[in-house]
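User: For my dataset I need records formatted as: sequence, then structure tokens, nothing else. Please produce one.
Assistant:
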Amino acid sequence: MYSIEQKYRRLRGQLQLGLLMLVALFLLGTSWFIVVEQWSWVDAAYMTMITLATVGFGEIHPLGDRSRIFTIILIFLGLIAVGYIVNRFIEAMISGYFQEIKKLKQYQQQISRLNNHYIVCGLGRTGQQVAREFLAENIPFVVIDQDPDIIEAAQDQGYICIQGDATLDQHLHEAKIDRATCLVAALSSDAENLYTVLSAKTLNPKIRAIARASTEEAVEKLRRAGADAVVSPYITGGRRLAAAALRPQVMDFVDGILTGAERSYYLEEIRVDSNCGGYIGKSLSEARLRVQSGALVLAIRRQDGSLIPGPTGDTLLLSGDFLICMGTAEQLRKLNSILIPVQTDGPLRPPQR
């Protein structure tokens, strides 16, 4: 099974082969009539053209037996070449190749317009779930995977896809990594994720890199390679299973607000920056964020990385702080009108599921 880009290259190669065959036959026929029959190049080219076109104009000069046999062979080969080209065109029309080529051009245009987007490397089970979450949150993202079957299935779902090896700089450049906000390395092996993180950080040192790891050893190596966050499905899954067994109500609540499954409350992170000048240096009670928006500030992450859980009214808002907030979609919209969100579209809409 071929991806859109592969189909485009395959069809283009086949048509080029057919045209090359015709050009070769034209040059062969012209050369024959010039050398063997001693015709001028104009007469030789004209005779070759009407022979390949099978228009039936007849001989412009009398031909010897050798040239007549050659002309028969030339007509036969010309019919094969023309038939091959026509067959490729008919197959392309029946199979919808031209529509897919148009779709490929649209994908390329979409990729060229990407900015502050996310890159998902690997569309296995983990990568597919990441892509679904991004799609539900209406986050712009592009997928990189080597498997043509996976790419075609992803394109059918409306994903912007690049078929290639995410560990190679070439395909990361195609995904416009220099303009990307975040990269998720969800490839099948820890080594591939390590190479992907290293490449991503080299090409764009400011990008946030999140990697999947299978072992605890890989977690540490990925962090040393520059990954901003490392998630092990096995370790995290085990912890969540234990938490679901020991604290089921807490887990249901956390899952609901993290995924938006309850469609009532959501979590959002909001950064306090220079655009929030009127609130920098004020305490939470003075800023009256809860009163103005109804959203609850659950924690504050300082610029130095320290975390303040359950901040009190006396806690000051400092430039570079990240506010971890909970509220309804409407409450977060109100808070968005006061402070600047990390993602422009973040709290403006609830996830669509």
